[in-house]
């Protein structure tokens, strides 16, 4: 009898209860599209169940071959580094288990069509009194210290702009990189368009999406002559679920290709040369499983409820087959210590947000 495969959907996790519930709804939607597999899910940080718990559940069902898919749009540090580190550590502790890792959703025409639907929904709700040529679209990405992931958001912006026939489009980010939402929207407001549509290119709601809409309200109040329209994020759009199912099947079909040509850990990326060859190691063990419970109740972001990964597992070092080596360290208070973003002091970037609101742009 052919050995049964299991699917593990790996999410980032959030302190926001709605975000956790939406991720679980998407994971259930993936399960419905792949009835031939046992499917489970888990989070990297801030929520339960954690990834390891989902893998335990699959093993208890007799699964020995796992197809793991990152529940993320683009491959930045979480998809390239943190999740693989957790999976590698688990596999090292369970030598009878084989884990194969899918690529991220990436630039996918299914995702572009889903995003186009969300923007169209916002346009239809706002009405047609303002023509498309007088409408500007601002696509807001999560923002990362990975220029490859950031540039993908710009590509999505262009494809939506051209595909929908809008007057203009701009890209902004919710954190880490630049321009951030508020300066990005202030710039857009000076371009002379009558309507600005703000579209968070996110899978789920959460702190960052709510922050995007908060800054939209702030800028809109300063520019009453412009109509600001908020478009919904992707969520469980049917095409999103189709794309996730495709990523799983790609593993078995042998076409699971991560984009390594533009990986800052492998090649010298302009401005990020110092990160080539960094050791692969997750820095999320201290917030694994805290923030929200499996019942959806919010919890405290408390280091005392941190890692259920053993010290032995955390000390295990793993290297990608093309010599990805990523290294992160932690301070005494368990702050996230990513490799320094080279433009952190940019006047439109993360330190500006921190100075203005007391919140870090890296959240």
The largest beta-sheet arranges its strands as 2-1-3-4
Number of strands: 8
Structural class: alpha/beta
In sequence order, what are the helices and strands, one letter per element? EHEHEHEHEHEHEHEHHH
Helix content: 25-40%
What is the helix tally?
10
Q: Could you please say which CATH topology of the largest domain applies here?
A: Rossmann fold
Beta-strand residue fraction: 5-15%
Categorize the overall geometry. Answer: globular
How is the biggest beta sheet arranged?
Answer: 4 strands, parallel
Calculate the terminal CA-CA distance, rounded to whole Å: 47 Å
CATH structural architecture of the largest domain: 3-Layer(aba) Sandwich
List the uncertain runs: 293-336, 358-363
Domains, number: 2
C-alpha Rg (nearest Å): 20 Å
Average the pLDDT over all residues and give the rounded result.
Answer: 82
CATH class of the largest domain: Alpha Beta
């Amino acid at each position: 009898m052919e050995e049964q495969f299991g699917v593990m959907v790996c999410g980032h996790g959030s302190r926001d209860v709605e975000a956790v519930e939406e991720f679980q709804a998407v994971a259930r939607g993936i399960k419905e599209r792949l009835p031939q597999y046992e499917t489970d899910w888990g989070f990297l940080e801030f929520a339960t169940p954690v990834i390891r718990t989902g893998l335990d559940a699959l093993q208890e069902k007799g699964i020995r071959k796992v197809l793991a898919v990152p529940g993320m749009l683009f491959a930045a540090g979480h998809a390239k580094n943190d999740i693989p580190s957790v999976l590698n550590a688990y596999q090292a502790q369970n030598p009878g288990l084989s884990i194969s890792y899918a690529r991220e959703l990436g630039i996918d025409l299914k995702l572009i069509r889903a995003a186009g639907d969300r923007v169209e929904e916002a346009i239809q709700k706002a009405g047609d009194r303002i023509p498309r040529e007088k409408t500007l679209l601002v696509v807001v990405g999560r923002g990362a210290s990975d220029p490859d992931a950031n540039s993908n958001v710009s590509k999505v912006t262009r494809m939506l702009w051209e595909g929908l026939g809008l007057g203009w489009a701009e890209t902004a980010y919710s954190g880490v990189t630049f321009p951030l939402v508020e300066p990005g929207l202030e710039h857009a407001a000076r371009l002379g368009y009558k309507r600005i549509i703000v579209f968070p290119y996110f899978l789920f709601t959460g702190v960052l999406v709510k922050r995007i809409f908060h800054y939209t309200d702030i800028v809109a109040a300063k520019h009453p002559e412009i109509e600001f329209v908020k478009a919904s994020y992707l969520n469980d759009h049917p095409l999103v679920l189709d794309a996730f199912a495709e990523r799983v099947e790609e593993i078995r079909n042998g076409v699971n290709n991560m984009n390594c040509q533009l990986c800052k850990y492998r090649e010298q990326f302009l401005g990020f040369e110092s990160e080539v060859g960094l050791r692969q190691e997750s820095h999320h063990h201290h917030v694994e499983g805290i923030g929200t419970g499996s019942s959806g109740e919010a919890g405290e972001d408390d280091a005392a409820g941190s890692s259920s990964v053993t010290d032995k597992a955390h000390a295990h070092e793993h290297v990608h087959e093309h010599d990805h080596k990523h290294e992160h360290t932690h301070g005494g208070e368990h702050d996230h210590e990513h490799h320094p973003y080279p433009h952190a002091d940019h006047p439109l970037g993360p330190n500006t947000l921190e100075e203005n609101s007391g919140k870090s742009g890296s959240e």
